[in-house]
Please model this.
Amino acid sequence: MGDNLKEKMVGALKWSTVDRLGQQAVQFAIGMILARLLTPEDFGLMGLVMIFAALSYVLVESGFGQALIRKNDTNELDYNTVFYSNVVIALFLYFILFFLSPLIANFFEQPDLLLICRVMFIAIIFNSFYLVPYAKLGKVLDYKKIAIVNVVSSFASGILGIVIAIVYKNVWALVIQQVAYHFFRMILFYYTVNWKPVKIFSFSVLKAFFPFTVNLLFTSILNVLFNNLFIVILGKFYPKSEVGYYVQGNKLNETVSFTIQSVLLGSTFSMFSQIQNDDERFRRIFRELSNKVSLTTLPFLLALIASASQFVVIIWSDLYIDSVLYFQLLCLAALFIPLYTLNISALNARGLSKITMLIESTKRILILVMILLTFNFGIVYMLIGYIFSSYIAYFMSLLFIRKEIKYYFKYQRSDMLKNIILSLLMFLVVYSANYIDINIYLKFILQIVSGLSFYLIYLRMFYSEFLNKIIQNLKTTIIRI
Model:
């Protein structure tokens, strides 16, 4: 059983990597083109609509997907009950949001939002139809099929968005792209997964899932609300262009952070769920993952902060230079988010969703306090407060991990200290290139080469076994290709 799980985990991690890298490669290319066809104002309008769409996705899913994955003896009654619940909630939300669209447009003083909202929210219905097939694939760690569906959907919807942007050059390119993405996912997941709903339903299933899902739902709602809080503030009190700068900076940060988390942590909840009762194995795998995540993410994010000016301009064009500071601050806030996500995933897999809800609630209260204290000083100071709140929440999660799986502070210190030193040194190496007066593309290439060279030398000196595994995996992948 152990070997089988390990084999599944290797396959899941590989295809999770293909999924994220494939999607992000497509989205990067699509995004670079759209940024040159559209304006910051267009991205600002889309950002305002996405707040309500993201919240709706969370309400539709309601934590049922993780509940299905976590349950050991899932049956057809479970799947069908969750399916019909998802669809009914989605239809209800669309009905409510359809009639609330005028209020949304009036709140942000943007009349164009009325029709944009009513079209964009159709994606909520498409989303509800494929959540169960997605969960079925995640339960058996079949990330190959998930990767194929996601990459194809991203590419097809992106091409459609580009065509509309070329013809109309307005925000509708972004709206249709988002709706099409969920439509393609719906079609492809049902084509890929051999499952169709039947007419069975049980409220007892929902009742059994409720103690676990209610905490996840509450946590997810808080995540969406607070992740979009600054967009609401900017949308209400600042020009649309400023919203667009923030949206683009935030999108770039989320793309990087989400890619990192999906590549390194994409299948951890499923894995932790399968070993939730084996304390020694759970602790060993958690510590190994924690060390590798910090070794990978901390230096990478700090290097991005150091090269942000070049990175943003090359990706989005110099029209978005005002997004740089937002991107840097958000990357700084995201520094420990992959490790935080690992902690939360481990706690949820152990059935401690009430604890993760407590941690998330405390984090949100801290963010609110920081915003109230810094509101009069501007968005930059509010983001600094957000950084401190994120760090405090991460250290809170460490306390509960220590208690739950006996991952003591002495292990945390020994695992983290070298990685933090590596990250700070790599930041200095990359940042020093900013003082060289050369072409922006050459400067960015120099930063990549110098940062990567330093990173590999450091790994050779202190983590040779880890580096050898990376090289071996690359060789194996190349040979298979």
The longest helix spans residues 2-37. Residues 145 and 349 are 23 Å apart (CA to CA). The chain has a mean pLDDT of 84. The chain has 22 helices and no strands.
